[in-house]
Amino acid sequence: MIRAWIVSTGSFVPERILTNDDLKSLVDTSDEWIMERTGIRERRIADKTEAASDLAYGAAKAALKSADLKARDLDLIIVATVSGDMLLPSTACILQDRLNAKKAAAFDVNAACSGFIYGLSVANAYIKSKLFKRVLVVGAEILSKFTDWEDRTTCVLFGDGAGAAILEATAEEKGILSAKIHSDGSMWDLLQTPGGGSRKPASRETIRRRLHFIKMKGNETFKVAVRTLENLVTETLDENNLKPSQLSLLIPHQANLRIIKATAERLKLPLERVMINIDRYGNTSAASVPIALDEAVKAGRVKEGDHILLEAFGGGVTWASALIKW
Ligand code: COA
Question: Which segments within 184-306 are labelled E, that is strand?
Fold first, then answer.
């Protein structure tokens, strides 16, 4: 049987660090509130000239280098993002050009914070069906450019960054064992960037009403996320006849430390077996899972033969999991 396995990972984050104390000069907040309610201590913020494809490029180059591959070896490039360089063309095409990946097809996936795992699932399907042999999946976000820096309920949460993985076909007993993607569009209004699309095209009025910034019903989203993720992780393990105790590492989307802890508790997983870096990066949306995966790999927390579980919940609403034998 042909499976898709992750040959290499890479990540890239902007240099500038914005701490909770720095945010106090922008909105009425405190380090205590942010730490207690979210677990975030600081986040990375891109500079004025950087766009999502620049961060994607950094992560993709790191993944290519780590696998000792050239960009021309890629058959397909998938970029998961909700903060791409432009509405048209796709950030994946801009990245393809920058990498000079002449042979590759390229497109974006929009599934908000679940985007990277959606990308993995698409790559997995293409590889298993033998249409493509080698796929680059990148999660890249610059949410800071769509953040309302006057809204304390959202501006403390998000950060910028990118993570990447290269997948290849293998006949060995390893790689993606299951990739599950789900959505429930009836809750599309929980998280949205209302202005600048075809519903409310950019105008003086949309800008005056700050509609080009991300809006989130935080508390409602929180409750749905906890409930959904708890079910998702138990279902994924059950369907693969695995017990939580057989899981070496859980790599969750980093939206809120309280959500991560609730999921770990449901699986009775000690926090040593959960990858947590939300304190340093905040919520980087589609970039959060691949950055965490790359850091786990670099830190030696993922070894050959280990079972690891990636999971995420995001706007749409969408949710997704990938169970991988490393
Ligand atoms: N600093 C200080 N106080 C703040 C604040 C901030 N940055 N942001 C909100 N508050 C206040 C609110 O105004 C509210 O005050 P009130 O009670 O006087 O009205 C109070 O804190 C509680 O707000 P609430 O929104 O109920 O807090 P919460 O416990 O739900 O935490 C989030 C807010 C955003 C951290 C949380 O809801 C969350 O993480 N949501 C989900 C995010 C998520 O999962 N996203 C997934 C896809 S990306």
Answer: 191-192, 215-216, 249-252
Residue 90 near residue 47, CB atoms below 8 Å: no
Mutational pocket test of ligand 1: of 36, 219, 226, 278, the residue with most ligand atoms within 8 Å of the beta carbon: 219
Domain boundaries, the chain: 3-172, 177-325
Q: Grade residue 318 by pLDDT with cuts at 50, 70 and 90.
A: very high
Q: By alpha-carbon position, which residue is closest to atom 1 of ligand 1?
A: 29
Pocket of ligand 1 (CB under 6 A): 29, 33-34, 37-38, 113, 152-153, 156-157, 218-219, 221-222, 225, 255-256, 259, 283, 313-314
Instruction: Assess whether the region 3-172 and the region 177-325 belong to the same CATH fold.
Output: yes
Tokens read off for 303: 């070894």
Q: Give the domain 3-172 fold.
A: Peroxisomal Thiolase; Chain A, domain 1 (3.40.47)
pLDDT tens digit sequence for 66-121: 999 999 999 999 999 999 999 999 999 999 999 999 999 999 999 999 999 999 99
Question: Is the pTM above the cut of 0.85?
Answer: yes
Topology of domain 177-325, per CATH?
A: Peroxisomal Thiolase; Chain A, domain 1 (3.40.47)
Q: What atom in ligand 1 is closest to the CA of residue 153?
A: 8
The whole-angstrom distance between residue 220's C-alpha and the CA centroid of its chain comes to: 21
Q: Is 113 a catalytic residue?
A: yes
Angstrom distance (rounded) from CA 121 to CA 100: 25
